[in-house]
Amino acid sequence: MSAQSPMPESTTAEARSAGRKASESGRDREFGVLVGFDGSELAALAVRFGAAEAARRKTALTVVTAYPLPTMIYPNMASIPSEPEDEKARKQAEKTLAEAVELVRDHPGEKSFRTAPGDAAGVITTLSADAEIIIVGARGRGGFVGRALGSVSTAVPAHAHCPTIVIPHHATSSESHGPVAVAVDGSEPARVAMVTAAAEAAVRRAPLEVIAVLPAGEEWLYWYPDLELSSEVTARRQRQLTESLEKEAATLSEQFPDLTVTTSVPVGDPTETLVEITSRAQLTVMGTRGRGRIRSALLGSVSRGVLNHAEGPVMVVPS
């Protein structure tokens, strides 16, 4: 689907270095850390973040720039451009990608750079089958990101074959000293996210915080005033969830003996609570969807809401 674009020979040699070792995560996929780049400021931050991730994971760094194939319909011979439009688009993509080459010129690990024709979200989703992790900016120029949250930062986490980290404008570095936080709700996607978060925390040598947000009862009382939701009922449910999380934490501690695991069950709006957590966590991990009413949705409402307002990197783990 995508061919390696002509790049400086030194870059190509780095991309094909022999004797690749298994990454820190235990996976050895061709593209390693795959970063989408469109030349925007936030995409540049994603590339730097990706380089740090690749170094931490001891895996390859791959940067890709997608370019749309133009619809070449000309009313007459005089309107045909001297240079084919698809060739012009490819050259522009290579020019954009050259900026990424400069951004990580000092990165000591294996790295490669490529352009690919087609829809950006489709390109990176396809490549994700051979990637360990994807990193994209929350917004950009419209090639890899753009619109409210971003067409790619919305579509890729929902369809990718591996976890996706979305970098917001607020993020400044991947070297935060905060915990790795994971949101759980008892669903199977949340359990997958929790184990993934534990592995991330272990690689980062960071503590893991497992969080289950209990929605406030007042929200239900507005619609169902006859419900008997008292502070005592909320406290009882909070204790039940805490006990459940502590059991999950004990299981994780057996799998990751060097990992410090804490649990919390805050009461409040799930999206608002998790957005606040993103401001102090070096990485916040979520599943694509949970126990919501529309369980078939590719990206749940809470996941979308957190991605829209996050103040730190957010990882979405496919179920």
UniProtKB/TrEMBL annotation:
Residue span of region Disordered: 1-25
Superkingdom per UniProt: Bacteria
SUPFAM superfamilies (UniProt xref): Adenine nucleotide alpha hydrolases-like
InterPro entries: Rossmann-like_a/b/a_fold (IPR014729), Universal_stress_UspA (IPR006015), UspA (IPR006016)
Amino acid composition bias (Polar residues), ranges on this chain: 1-14
Residue stretches making up the UspA domain: 33-168, 180-318
Family: Belongs to the universal stress protein A family.
Name listed for the protein in its UniProt record: Nucleotide-binding universal stress protein, UspA family
Organism: Brevibacterium iodinum ATCC 49514
